[in-house]
From TrEMBL, chain A:
Ranges for domain DCUN1: 7-207
Provenance organism: Debaryomyces fabryi
Role: Neddylation of cullins play an essential role in the regulation of SCF-type complexes activity.
GO cellular component annotations of the record: plasma membrane; ubiquitin ligase complex
UniProt-listed GO biological process terms: protein neddylation
InterPro entries assigned: DCN-prot (IPR014764), DCN1-like_PONY (IPR042460), PONY_dom (IPR005176)
Domain of life where this protein originates: Eukaryota
Molecular functions per Gene Ontology: cullin family protein binding; ubiquitin conjugating enzyme binding; ubiquitin-like protein binding
PROSITE patterns linked to this entry: DCUN1
Name of the protein this chain belongs to: Defective in cullin neddylation protein
Automatic annotation (TrEMBL), chain B:
Annotated PANTHER family: CULLIN
SMART domains with a match to the protein in the record: CULLIN, Cullin_Nedd8
Keyword Ubl conjugation tagged: yes
Organism: Debaryomyces fabryi
Protein name: Cullin family profile domain-containing protein
Amino acid sequence: MNSKPLKIDAKLNAIYDKYKDSNNENKIDINGTIAYLEDLDFDPEHPISLTLAFFLEAPSMGVFTKEKFLYKWQKDRINSLSGMRDFILKLHNSLETNDSLFQELYNFTFGFLMEVPGQRLLNYELAVDYWKLLLMNKKEFEPCYTRLEQWFDFIMNEYKRGLSNDTWKMFFLFIKTIALKDPSNFEDYDEMSAWPSVIDEYIEYLKENKLLN
Amino acid sequence: MSQSFPVASDLNATWSFIQPGLEFILGAQGDQGVTSKMYMNCYTAIYNYCVNKSRHGSANTPVSAVSGNNSYSLAGAEIYAKLDEYLVQFITSLKKDPLESFLEFYVKRWTRFTIGAGYMNNVFDYMNRYWVQKERSDGRRDVFDVNTLSLLKWKSHLFNNNADRLIDEVLDQIEKQRNNEIVDSNYISTAIKSLVYLGIDIQDLKKPNLVVYIKHFEHKFLQKTAEYYSKESAKFLSQHNVVDYMKKCDTRLSEEVSRSNNYLDNHTKKFLLETLNTVLIKDHAQAMYDQFLRLLEQDEIEHIQIMYKLLARVPSTLQPLADTLEKYIKDEASKAIEEIKNPSEDIEDLSKQSADGKTSKRTTAGLVSPKSYIHTLISIYIKFNDIVTVAINKDPIFIKSLDNACRYFVNKNSIAIPTPKSNCKTPDLLARYADGFLKATSRESDIIGMTPDNLMIIFKFIDDKDAFEEHYRRLLAKRLINNNTKSDELEESIIQKLQEENSLEYTSKMTKMFQDMKSSEDLKVNVREELSQTDNQVKDFTPLILAQSMWPFKHLDDYKLKLAPELMPSFDKVQEIYNKKHTGRQLQWLWNHGKSEVKANLSRKGKPPFLFTVSNVQLMILLAFNKSNTYSFKELFDTVGVAKHTFEAHLLPFTKYKLIDQNPPGAECFSKDDTKFTIVEEYKSKKLRVNFVSSIKTEQKQEEENTNKEIDESRRNYLSACIVRIMKARKQMKHNELVNDVATQSLSRFRAKIIDIKRVIDYLIEKEYLRRIDNDTYEYLA
């Protein structure tokens, strides 16, 4: 840990204590999380909840660690629920323009969705849910919405298998470098280059269904 | 000529003395040559002059001015100047006779002049050797020996002014000769040679120099040649067919070669051939390509050979021809394949061979027999291999085209790949082809012309070698365990061939299978020996011990057979003997394989017993009837013990062929628990041998699926081992490089699809054997 121990504000400590797990005081569990989101007035289904989890480096869904919770808020000297709400709203809005921050969020999401230790593949249905959450709410990807829908159809109806972290990351690269550049033809796509096989299969699927030349 | 020699120091006197002699030498007096006396006198006078002058020196010669420091100077400059002047005057005085052509004039005079120049060179020998040599070694490059001086004078005063005229006349003569008119080639030859002689390098007289020849003659000659033949060939082709044209080319080329041997300098030969090749061959290559298809269609081997030889003179013209061949072979193959798919009235000879009442091997479902399929492929190969060998001289470019075409049609044709996504069927058909001539039970008349050589030819072209191995091994396994091999030697020779063509590893499983058969033989002898000492009923028993991963057999839960008590002793004996030898190995019985023969005492009194061929399941069913004549379905099923659908499949042939009566009858009652099955008292069959195995319904489709699954799985394993091996050595590698290396390495077993390689890479990333760095590079994780 390179972080020097910070002196934690008493108000912040009090907020943490309000939500902490009664069995394990080092974390906030799912019940605490739901209450916390409610008090912040964040819809758990809304992308903003993911932004919160990302900011607090939540190890998995519905869990916050005490260490990160206190450290992250203290670092920004925030010790009230309304301050937290404002901060996250601001952070969330900045994702629209801050590319590298958005990429960090995207990469974070895969690990965040892992449910058991040693898990390497992300359930494909869950993957699609979060792709929708991440990509379909972002203006930047609007030119690709149709392609994304087709990707979801392909994953849900044809591929139907778990997805690796590598695929998760490479798909983002594919959207950014190939799909956004030329959504109708994917002109820069080259099957000889290193795309994971699932992306090749997706292209094949589009061609078979006459959705791509 | 005066007898007394002139005063040696007097130049003019000396010159007047020798000039009449020189006239004779050079031929100014017609054909009359110089007499030896005259020659000697001239020589002596020049010698005297030079020696005398040299001794006294000469203050007023430019020579001594140059070499002024020499107290001793050589004489020659003045007489050399006289000679120079004389030669000019002589040459310019030569006049053409109105009746002769310029060429005739030139050649005649040249011939005489060069002879004279040679003589004159000798006459001035002393001057040549001392004065000329000295001047040249002092660096003067405008002084020459007399012969060279004569040639140079000829060049500057006769040749240079008339070069065009001369060359035009020479080229005229050559054109006449090309037009088959009679010309005196001596004139041509001498005139051309004169150009070589006139090429004098004044810096180094000994160095051959073709400047004059090339500048005045060769350029024009090549240009004229190109014009002549490009006109002629265009005209000829417009009036004749390509074959005649090719023959004409052949003639023309050999004519020109002999012309160039006869009177051109060697230098020209290369350029002449280049010119001819361009004008006669390269410029008309397209016409030949067009004709090539027709020649192939009409099987005109000889003409193909002429065409190849012509085009081979211009190597760059060959590739399109080879491409044409490749495409033609592919088209022919696909036509031939269509023909055997839809047999019409006139089927080609190969399928006729099997027409001896057995044509129905090609079943109505449009399935083609392995024999007719493989022989169709072979016939295409042989036909075009012959063409490439005989007519095309085994040119590597064409061998490659043949290989490409064969590999293409062997792997991709409408029988091999009926639907775009299906696996290639050729490996399977080829394995069945081999099975055809390796099986002991095949009829000789059915397997005429089926040979290991044919097998190996097609094998070489197969992409999916691994699929062939899998199919071949399955059939081999069946031949071996059913004791259905025609000859062990033949079997082993084929394994040997496959090994040579591919690798030791490729045939390792099959080799192990043969070993298993041999050691099983020993075990059998052992078992039988021990059984013979007991009072066991079943002595004629052949156990086979088959290594699990080598043989294409799987232990199936459907076949958990309850062994009849009659068989237990034999069964136990095998276990006992085997376990004694190999402790710790587990034996699994494959009851779905193997057959038994049962003697059945169900004949009419006095007749010999029946001999039934039955499966192991059927054997247990029959043995049960030793105890009781009637069982309910459930009783019998419990006695035998296998899965219900398996039991039904094996029981059915018995009721169908009325060995066992079913009560109540009817298919709907067949598998009801309390339906009764009773064995007949007396079996009514005309044949003593009855086979109940062949009518058991088997799951053919299932087996095919299993085979394909196994091929896919072994490919994945192979690819992943291959990738790990490469990455372990390289640590880091670019995606494309890795894919290429893997594809190349797997080529001897199968043609790996890129998507399959990628899937395995994905799998290895997921399992953390590899890691992606920089989007398109992988890193090996130890």
